[in-house]
Design brief:
Length: 938
């Protein structure tokens, strides 16, 4: 405070000295050069900002820094008001109509200010503003704007304040925060009295309702989930604005100025007040770091900022967990705390405003026997019962709520939060485990009533789940530092269970028809739900999370009440929960060995059904952008092919029969398409066996038309939009030559297309018939006519050598700075066991425009022939798998050749010259001062 007063005193002295120099007739401000005064204020503002930043970096917490900055800004604004009204526009004849009060509103009114936030001001007048008041307001606003400040402002009379507050909840909210800064104090006190009286007369119900509606709309806009991996610290769910909404409701209802006041009034407990203060301190520290790191009012904690801020706040690596992941875990645990406070404190404040319920709790013999009653149609504990004395009542309360269809009363939820830690005592309680499994999987006799996601979410929010299942506690708030996963691990898991619930209800039949049909056929529902809950339970540990998760499932299954068979099934599902998607997206499912190997692993139709359903739910729960029609198609195809094997319909000797059937079907399709016997025979002689197995008859007929129309043309490009699969098929028919695939891939990259799969076939006439399935940047089919036309031109230019592919790719949009902090280590895996006829090469690296072109160009230069390519991206990580042979059409088995190929591919994975590589993670720092800024242990 002394330093603050010293800064203000210095500013006032400088202004007095400037004013003493006399009048300047050429100026408009009564004798003091405005630009010289502006320079004084600008220097003072610089000192304020530098002083606040220095204090923050030396260990002052974010909330205290926000108060400090607000206090210093008060001194500057008051000085400006005094100088403007006394010197620039000195008063003439005193008039009550010229009374003016200046108040801070919004966050500034609450006495907290972030480094680059707006300052909100209210110029208050008794009646309509007279000319001098208008001049004062205009001068001050322009002066503040010229200082570079963002100013939200309003000039209102007393009557206008009251009238506009009645009409607009936003204005009413800003006036709740109004804080006197300077001017006529009596006028401001009159406003406060009239405003409070009006608030009391209008009641709290409308205001609380408006704040809730505003919160719901804000959540829809900024993310209706507190566990998005790039959260908005200010406006997102579980962020600062949610705490401020609680503050507004509490202040409006009781006049309390914070959690301590509410605790003193007995509305909330001391533990809730501490949690509120702790959450506010942490979020304000993060917000200050965000503003300082970006130099602007940035509120979103994006991937590129997370490592920087995490390091600045002292979070370091612990074992396999990066410092940035530990920082974000603290953030998400704080967001969960804010959600708890919203759900428990807000009803308590509302109850204070509306009074106690006028009705007594209702009960029935069954409810009473279970220890519960209904209050206002919601489940509450019966009189004389408590979670502290009987922890098992926590699980019973959830089951009663489900079975009766009645929501938990806020008082019950509040008690669950307070006593959730007591579920530790129930880990080995048979009744608690039985209820938990029943809540997770739903009643066996009524699967459609299953709503496991709801109850997992409730238990997770209350803190029960992490205590009841300790391994779950390790994934609460656990993020994965990549752009593929949208949610934290625990939230992703709950979302996956929610997808299972939707599948059972038939809500996804149009989107996932196979999985929707299969889930009604599975015999091991409980094993499926337990596997879904535990499939990522070992994420964030040092080792294969699938293997460790399978072990955890083996240990936990019997405790939850699964039979030995169910436990084995659930453990197997957790161990192999990625195998179906990895096979569908990374392997050639037209290769019989791929299908046979998967069938050998699965062994039973029941396990295949379970695995298909679990895979679909897992993928859809990652994010809405991950699931698309193309991936759905691949999963359906791999399911039916493995199902055929398990039914005895496919084995290796039968491949010739399958080729014969495929050729016969193709001939029938060609005949139906109007081709004569000679034309059919000519086309049928072009394809090798792999070609006939690789496409359906309608595609064969389409290829025949392309070949017939091409005649002797050197290049033919045809596109087919496949809306049901969400892709556009591009067929290129050209003379085969080394590098053909790479050049086409490069042209598609320049065109802005993303290749999701590819098949390469060389026909018996020496022509290449290459097929690419592409999408646009949004993950939809590439279907705009002018873009398709440009793509065809680019392919022709690339194959003729007129397109400088590498140069054009470098001109493409660089990776988003937001994702550059995510490091993707390059990796090449060569497998000679996955296919009987091809060498399988898997390439992992950071996705970028031209990635596929660079990799395939390296293969071409190494003398490798590509038979098929399977392209998958996981956020910024590209995983491309190629089935290749050497120049003689054989598997590559020479170790020297394989080593040389691997080196060439690793070199191709390096970012090309002129592009920006992924930014490395900052060094982990963290002195005592930085840890204090974290508002908690790091």
């Amino acid at each position: 405070m002394a330093e603050q007063d010293a800064l203000v005193s210095q500013l006032q002295q400088d202004l007095a000295a400037l004013s003493a120099k006399g009048s300047d007739p050429g100026s408009l401000d009564g004798g003091v050069k405005r630009d010289r005064a502006l320079a004084l204020f600008r220097r003072h503002l610089g000192r304020i900002q530098a002083d606040t930043k220095q204090r923050f970096e030396q260990g002052l917490g974010g909330l205290d820094a926000a108060k400090h900055l607000s206090g210093q800004m008060d001194g500057m604004v008051r000085t400006l008001l005094g100088w403007t009204t006394a010197t620039v526009f000195p008063p003439g004849i005193s008039s009550s109509g010229e009374a003016l009060a200046l108040a801070a509103t919004g966050g500034y009114g609450r006495g907290v200010l972030a480094p680059f936030s707006d300052i909100d001001l209210l110029f208050l007048t008794p009646w309509k503003e007279p000319p001098r008041t208008e001049q004062v307001v205009e001068f001050m606003l322009y002066f503040l704007w010229d200082l570079g400040l963002k100013v939200g402002h309003a000039t209102r009379s007393l009557d206008e304040c009251i009238a506009q507050a009645r009409a607009d909840a936003t204005i009413r909210t800003s006036l709740v925060d109004a804080r006197f800064l300077g001017g006529d104090g009596a006028l401001f006190q009159e406003f406060r009295q009239r405003f409070r009286t009006d608030c009391a007369e209008n009641g709290a119900a409308a205001f609380i309702g408006a704040k809730r509606a505003e919160r719901e709309e804000r959540h829809r806009k900024f993310g209706d989930n507190a566990f998005l991996v790039e959260p908005n610290v200010k406006d997102g769910k579980g962020g600062l604005r949610d705490l401020q909404t609680l503050y507004w409701i509490g202040r409006y209802v009781t006049g309390a100025d914070g959690p301590e006041s509410l605790a003193e009034d007995g509305l909330i407990g001391a533990d809730e007040a501490r949690a509120w203060r702790r959450a506010a301190a942490f979020l304000w520290s993060v917000r200050f770091h965000l503003h300082y790191a970006t130099g602007r009012a940035e509120e979103r904690l994006t991937f590129d900022l997370q490592p920087v801020i995490g390091a600045a706040m002292g979070y370091t690596r612990h074992g396999p967990t990066q410092g940035v992941e530990r920082f974000m875990k603290h953030y998400f645990l704080t967001a969960r705390e804010v959600r708890r406070l919203t759900l428990t404190v807000e009803p308590a404040i509302e109850r204070a405003a509306l009074g106690a319920p006028a009705v007594q709790p209702e009960t029935t013999p069954s409810l009473s026997a279970a220890g519960f009653a209904l209050l206002e149609g919601q489940v509450v504990l019966a009189e004389g019962r408590s979670f502290a004395d009987e922890p098992i009542l926590m699980f019973r309360a959830l089951r009663v709520s489900r079975d009766t269809g009645k929501d938990l009363h806020p008082l019950t939820l509040r008690a669950l939060v307070r006593h959730g830690r007591n579920s530790t005592q129930l880990r080995n309680d048979p009744e608690a485990n039985a209820i938990f499994l029943d809540l997770l999987a739903g009643p066996q006799d009524n699967p459609a009533k299953a709503d496991g996601a709801k109850w997992l979410g409730t238990m997770n929010l209350a803190g029960m789940l992490g205590r009841f299942i300790p391994d779950w506690g390790r994934i609460v708030g656990q993020m994965q530092f990549d752009t593929y996963h949208v949610f934290t691990v625990d939230e992703h898991t709950i979302e996956a269970v929610r997808v299972l619930n939707d599948l059972e209800r038939g809500n996804l039949a149009d989107v996932t028809p196979v999985a929707s049909a299969l889930i009604g056929q599975v015999q091991s529902r409980r094993a499926l739900y337990v596997a879904m809950m535990l499939h990522d339970i070992a994420k964030g540990r040092d080792g294969d999370h699938s293997e460790m998760g399978a072990v955890i499932t083996q240990e936990l299954g019997p405790r939850l009440g699964l039979t030995a068979e169910e436990t084995e099934t659930a453990s197997w599902l957790v161990l192999h929960h990625l195998v179906l998607s990895q096979t569908a997206f990374k392997r050639d499912i037209d290769d019989p060995k791929t299908v046979l190997d998967l069938a050998e692993l699965v062994q039973s139709p029941e396990r295949l059904r379970l695995l298909e359903v679990l895979t679909v739910a897992d993928m859809r729960a990652v994010s809405t952008k991950v699931w698309n029609n193309w991936k759905a198609t691949l999963l359906r195809e791999i399911y039916w092919r493995v199902a055929e094997v398990l039914a005895g319909g496919l084995n290796v000797p039968e491949r010739d029969a399958r080729v014969a059937r495929a050729r016969a079907s193709a001939e029938a399709a060609l005949s139906a398409d109007g081709l004569g016997p000679d034309e059919i025979a000519e086309f049928m002689a072009l394809g090798y066996p792999a070609y006939w197995l690789g496409f359906d008859p309608s595609t064969h007929a389409r290829h025949a038309r392309i070949v017939r129309e091409a005649a002797d043309a050197p290049l033919t490009v045809r596109t087919t939009i496949m809306a049901d699969r969400g892709v556009t098929e591009v067929t290129v028919y050209a003379a085969d030559h080394p590098g053909l695939f790479s050049k086409v891939a490069g042209a598609l990259a320049v065109a802005g297309a993303s290749i999701v799969d590819a098949r390469i076939h060389t026909m018996t006439n020496g022509m290449a018939l290459d097929t690419f399935w592409i999408q646009d940047a949004a993950g939809g089919s590439f279907d705009t006519p002018h873009r398709i036309a440009r793509m065809s031109v680019l392919i022709e230019q690339a194959l003729s050598g007129r397109l400088r592919i590498a140069e054009e790719i470098r001109k493409s949009r660089p990776p988003s700075p937001r994702t550059r902090a995510i490091h993707v280590p390059p990796r090449v895996v060569i497998d000679n066991h996955a296919s009987a006829t091809h060498t399988v090469v898997e390439v992992n690296g950071r996705d970028r425009p031209g990635f596929l072109h660079d990799v395939t160009a390296a293969m071409s230069e190494a003398g490798v022939q590509i038979a098929s390519a399977h392209v998958t991206t996981y956020g910024v990580r590209a995983v491309d798998v190629f089935y290749v042979k050497d120049v003689f059409g054989l598997k590559i088995e020479n170790e020297r050749k394989l080593s040389s190929l691997k080196e060439a591919l690793l070199a191709a994975l390096e970012p090309p010259p002129g592009t920006v590589a992924a930014a490395p993670l900052p060094p982990a720092g963290g002195g005592a001062a930085r840890r204090r800024n974290a508002a908690g242990p790091a």
